[in-house]
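Reproducibility note. Readers wishing to regenerate the assembly model reported in the main text can use the exact inputs given here. Chain order matters: entities are listed in the order in which they were concatenated for prediction.
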Amino acid sequence: MPHLYVEYSANLAEFPERQLLTELNAAVCGHPTVVDPLDVKSRIAAVQQFAIGTTPGLNGFVHAHLHLLSGRTPEVKKELSDRIAEVLRRLTPQPAGMLVQLSVDVVDMDRGSYYKGRL
Amino acid sequence: MPHLYVEYSANLAEFPERQLLTELNAAVCGHPTVVDPLDVKSRIAAVQQFAIGTTPGLNGFVHAHLHLLSGRTPEVKKELSDRIAEVLRRLTPQPAGMLVQLSVDVVDMDRGSYYKGRL
Amino acid sequence: MPHLYVEYSANLAEFPERQLLTELNAAVCGHPTVVDPLDVKSRIAAVQQFAIGTTPGLNGFVHAHLHLLSGRTPEVKKELSDRIAEVLRRLTPQPAGMLVQLSVDVVDMDRGSYYKGRL
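Running the prediction on these inputs yields the following structure tokens for the assembly.
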């Protein structure tokens, strides 16, 4: 069920999109609460139009959000967030002079109304 | 107020985007809790860069998320999820040999801070 | 920490993307609860494929969602929503004969599992 989204500011040139997705899926699937790896569906996209703060400056960001069915403990959510953050820190390029912000948000999905099926 | 988003993996060629939006809006607007059809705003987009699981394979997905003002009952949320799922199952193409995962997430929006206006 | 997203229907031609982001960031950063302006990261994108309601008509929308770490009071969330709405009302173009819906959703992010870092 986990749905993972990564967005990065388009000024982060040569962002390793494929490698990041591969390593993020490995990190998330490696957690003992994830039973079926195929449940993990990740996407990544560059954000073309963005603004950070209110003053000019060389700023970039990478933001990930992981959506899980409700019911995971706070500890599990923190562990998954940490795993994702570790991959972001390791693979995000840092252009010279740019301040790059990284963040990870873990979001509960309502288990009672969630639908899951396969064709 | 309902905001509906549909994302599908770009390997689902010839996805019937317009038809899906039309039928999803009809399905959601047909629910007795939706008073004004114009409230239902739906979007669809292909996801170009994605990863499913950790091993190579022919996999695809369609994921919908419906955002509603808080206060709907669990039953109403499940019914809306079911209506959306029915349309996804019916209209999603299935390329030969591909495992296509379908999912629907219903999300509460905070009624107290929600703003709604018209120009 | 605030993450702000703005989506607008692509039939709103000549949408002032840069100006909107600049003014939204100023509005959000001007709120006393926002300490570091660099925390405010905003994005904007046109939605190419959308459907509003169930009948043909000249309809458009602009939808913003602001994601904040959990713990802000309902009053603060309403104030931030109002600030964003004011900018949307002022800067959204209104093509002749089009009904343009505006909306703002304020979303809590789980503070316990949120990760924030910098490169």
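We highlight two features of this model. Chain A touches chain C through 36 residues (CB under 8 Å). The longest strand of chain A covers residues 59-69.
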